[in-house]
Backbone:
């Protein structure tokens, strides 16, 4: 069974591609086969990057660190472009360039590179290694990166920071904290993966004329929310059922977020009394099987506050058998097994694990991978569900092998209960329009925007309250 998750907003488009090393090399090779000389490609990349460096330098002096490969060649082009326009430029290159094109770039630089030297300029540009690094950074290159990290210069990484593996985000040496990272030609996976993502500062894409086709991973675009249709009513906008369990607080947070993010009707199915529930929230204590038989239900959320006892397990089984589009979060993910999932009715499922829950699911489903993006993708395909692997480097993966990454959200989201809010947002959007990938993507953007609006030091309750304004900002 393949879950139907048609992308409603055309998110998988070439102009927001996030490439692997192999895909980037193929794009460059295709350009050269179509008549673009490799030297011309380096000139384009170097000059476009030099324009960014000049803007950041604003007349101040610049040190450029050049390595032995084409990233170093880009550095020489940057240096000559800046020098020719009157900037004070110093190049530090521990070794000579190795490739023919990089050697040509070095020959056309009118200055004299130093083998070693202090980073004593106002701006420093890292062109030691670009994408494709697969070994540890050591020796004089590591020394330069360590000195760069100690400096008070404005720090720029060209393409990918030099101690990062592009595909996995693995740290392969000293990793300075950058102020700006300039991605050449296309985004790379490491631009959106921790811990590298936290060190890159602002990130900008520098087009260099490559024709990039459709790809299996993209950077999510900011969504746009529209007002309900003129003839809408609460059921047409979507009925969301949230299944509560042992702990009443978490599903209330999910409910408060869901009521503010699109669904026309949110019903909390609970055996508990909820004296602190908002008046607008319908709390029903009918037997769960009877409550879930309501044909007007468009989506179900289960997991926040569910518990992990036998009662919780029975409630999870009932939800999976109900045949409704469902979001699984929190405790539901800890109890989920391949057998339980295999017995579900044929319907769309979204799982929203944090790091620990993702690890638990991987153990349950026999998934092994070296990095979060590949892990989420393999789990989505193995479990035939949409996976929203949340965290500072959130990944959205679908069973058909496509994946999506997001700009980094507020670090203030690292507080208890914010995951319950996210689950409510995703479930509300799913009830509203039924598109699983779109619902998860919109939920992340609402989560990030609500965090921005809530400011520093917010609680999960504050975050849920800010959702209404977040919808307005994204409309």
Residues:
């Amino acid at each position: 069974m393949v879950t139907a998750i048609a992308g409603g907003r055309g998110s998988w488009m070439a102009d927001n591609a996030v490439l692997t090393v192999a895909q980037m090399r193929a794009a460059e090779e295709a350009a050269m086969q179509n008549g673009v000389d490799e030297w011309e490609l380096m000139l384009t990349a170097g000059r476009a990057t030099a324009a960014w460096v000049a803007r950041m330098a604003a007349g101040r002096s610049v040190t450029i660190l050049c390595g032995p490969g084409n990233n170093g060649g880009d550095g020489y082009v940057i240096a000559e472009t800046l020098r020719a326009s009157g900037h004070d430029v110093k190049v530090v290159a521990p070794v000579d360039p190795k490739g023919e094109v990089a050697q040509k770039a070095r020959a056309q630089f009118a200055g004299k590179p130093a083998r070693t030297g202090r980073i004593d300029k106002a701006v420093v540009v890292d062109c030691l290694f670009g994408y494709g690094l697969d070994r540890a950074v050591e020796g004089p290159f590591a020394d330069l990166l360590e000195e760069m990290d100690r400096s008070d210069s404005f720090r720029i990484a060209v393409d990918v920071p030099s101690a990062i593996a592009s595909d996995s985000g693995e740290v392969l040496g000293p990793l300075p904290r950058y102020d700006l990272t300039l991605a050449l030609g296309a985004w790379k996976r490491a631009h959106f993966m921790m811990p590298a993502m936290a060190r890159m500062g602002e990130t900008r894409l520098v087009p260099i004329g490559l024709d990039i086709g459709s790809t299996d991973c993209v950077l999510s675009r900011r969504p746009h929310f529209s007002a309900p249709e003129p003839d809408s009513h609460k059921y047409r906008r979507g009925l969301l059922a949230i299944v509560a369990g042992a702990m009443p607080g978490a599903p209330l947070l999910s409910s408060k977020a869901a009521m503010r993010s699109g669904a026309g009707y949110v019903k909390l199915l609970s055996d508990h009394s909820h004296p602190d529930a908002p008046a607008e929230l319908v709390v029903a204590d009918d037997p769960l099987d009877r409550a879930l038989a309501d044909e007007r239900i468009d989506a179900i959320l289960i997991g926040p506050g569910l518990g992990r006892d036998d009662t919780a397990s029975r409630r999870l089984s009932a939800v999976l058998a109900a045949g409704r589009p469902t979001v699984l979060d929190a405790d539901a993910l800890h109890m989920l097994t391949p057998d339980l999932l295999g017995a579900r009715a044929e319907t769309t499922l979204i799982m929203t694990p944090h790091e620990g829950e993702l690890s638990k699911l991987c153990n349950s489903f026999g998934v092994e991978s070296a990095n979060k993006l590949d892990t989420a993708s393999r789990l989505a395909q193995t479990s035939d569900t949409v996976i929203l692997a949340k965290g500072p480097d959130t990944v959205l993966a679908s069973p058909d092998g496509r994946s999506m990454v997001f700009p980094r959200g507020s670090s203030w989201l690292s507080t208890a209960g914010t995951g319950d809010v996210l689950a409510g947002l995703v479930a509300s959007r799913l009830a509203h329009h039924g598109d699983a990938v779109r619902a998860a993507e919109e939920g992340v953007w609402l989560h990030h925007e609500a965090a921005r609006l809530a400011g520093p030091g917010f609680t999960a309750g504050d975050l849920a309250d800010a959702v209404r304004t977040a919808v307005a900002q994204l409309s």
Observations:
- The chain has 16 helices and 18 strands.
